[in-house]
Amino acid sequence: TVVIKFMVNRQQFLREKACRALFDLSGTEWFVVPVLEDFDVDRIKATKEKERSVAQTRVQRAMNGTPETKDELFALDIQEKNASVHNFTRYKYALVMPAGDRDLGEICMHEELGIMQIRQFMT
Hints:
alpha+beta, elongated
């Protein structure tokens, strides 16, 4: 089971991705879940600008409607979802992480945490 965290702010996205990469996640008990996959719509443009030498292949793929990268596929999915009930236009970044065994609501309910302890978890 995974959790997809959709994000609006690129700096927050990059910071969270970098911070999660710093933790030692080799053990079986994680207090911070690792990022399994990430998606960045802005990376599409940067990638295309770096790879001008293969522009012809890109044009052919674009004409066929075949996304080249996972980020392009993510961008297409966002566009498709915008036609549905939910609007994902603002969410150009996403982190895919394993689902934790409990969420903050469950922890607060079962552990009888005070507001100061909750604030410590949130920072």
